[in-house]
Design brief:
This protein has 329 residues and is mainly alpha-helical. The protein is built from 13 helices and no strands. Helix 6 packs parallel to helix 12 and helix 7 runs parallel beside helix 11.
């Protein structure tokens, strides 16, 4: 007799929860932070090797520019306060032509990882949330990221431009919803079970898969958490922990393919961590309404220019092929 899929899913969740909870003298959050420490070491080894390889190939010393350091500081400062860093960094990179379009996704994922890990350590420690829910949501995001990074890292320039343009419009939409208080109202739960856990895992898997493209996970993940009836503060360790684990995984693929700008990566890394510490422990909170509206305007402008550039480059390519006798428009 075949049992319904839901029956087997519920049994799996119960067994997984029982296995986690029955571990003697083990705190899951402690294990999670230990795993994050190992992940950080893995990330640093991968990045250092990638930077050394780049320096050897170019014959130049890989050092951050003042603009890269400032970008890392400003974007991660506001990221810790809830603005997000991917969309703002993309806008800065394009406005001042700091990084080629095709290398922006990899640069974002690699460069912002260290600051995100710092955020995860802070908020996982101070914000209460069910450990089993937290671990499973993080695992789902990491699996999605591994899939997404493998696709995005091999994309041609035009596909990256179109993908980032759409990603920025998605970010702008979620930001406007937040400003207009159109997001779902948060509940009080600190734990997901049954069908809600299944929805959360599928949702975080999808967000992890989109993350390498430049769609920041924070905003969409927060909306997902609200829709599932969880407490608003539970979103912080889930979204920051997810990013802290999935970004090193995505970074490994981008580094292996050389799909990043080395100097910009170092600038984001070095400038980002101090900004997180200042925002989390000194500033803590500040009125950000006007800043969010400014970010929305800048992000929409950047998205439109990316999509227009992709269209114009395609048109130029077709014209060149026609002139060479390759195609007929």
């Amino acid at each position: 007799m075949l049992y319904p899929l839901r029956y087997w899913y519920d049994r799996l969740c119960r067994h997984a929860s029982h296995a986690f909870e029955s571990m003697p003298n083990v705190d899951l959050k402690t294990l999670l932070l230990g795993a994050l420490a190992l992940t950080t070491i893995f990330y640093m080894v991968i990045v250092i090797r990638g930077l050394r390889k780049t320096a050897a190939e170019t014959g130049e010393r890989v050092a951050p520019t003042p603009g890269g350091l400032l970008t890392g500081f400003v974007t991660n400062f506001f990221d810790t306060l809830g603005i997000g860093s991917f969309a703002t960094t993309t806008a800065i990179f394009r406005q001042w032509s700091m990084v080629p379009d095709e290398k922006i996704p990899g640069t974002l994922n690699i460069g912002h990882t260290l600051a995100t890990i710092a955020q995860a350590y802070i908020f996982t420690t101070i914000v209460p949330v069910d450990s089993v829910t937290l671990v499973l949501m993080i695992v789902a995001a990491v699996l999605g990221s591994w899939l997404g990074a493998g696709v995005v890292s091999g994309w041609p320039r035009r596909n990256v431009q179109i993908g980032m343009g759409i990603a920025l419009l998605v970010f702008a939409t979620t930001a406007v919803m937040t400003q207009l208080s159109l997001n779902p109202i948060a509940g009080t739960a600190l734990k997901l079970e049954g069908g809600k856990l299944a929805i959360g895992l599928v949702g975080n898997f999808a967000l992890g898969a989109l993350m390498p493209l430049g769609i920041g996970l924070y905003g969409p993940c927060m909306i997902l958490i609200y829709m599932l009836g969880m407490d608003a503060k539970a979103a912080f360790p889930i979204m920051m922990g997810s990013c802290a684990f999935l970004m090193p995984v995505a970074s490994a693929r981008f580094v292996r393919l050389g799909a990043f700008d080395a100097r910009a990566v170092v600038g984001l890394m070095v400038g980002g961590v101090p900004a997180v510490l200042i925002a989390a422990f000194i500033v803590k909170s500040m009125p950000l309404g006007a800043v969010r509206w400014l970010v929305v305007v800048v992000v929409v402008y950047t998205a439109v220019t990316l999509l227009r550039t992709a269209m114009s480059e395609r048109r130029a390519s077709l014209v060149a092929k026609e002139a060479a006798g390759g195609v007929t428009l």
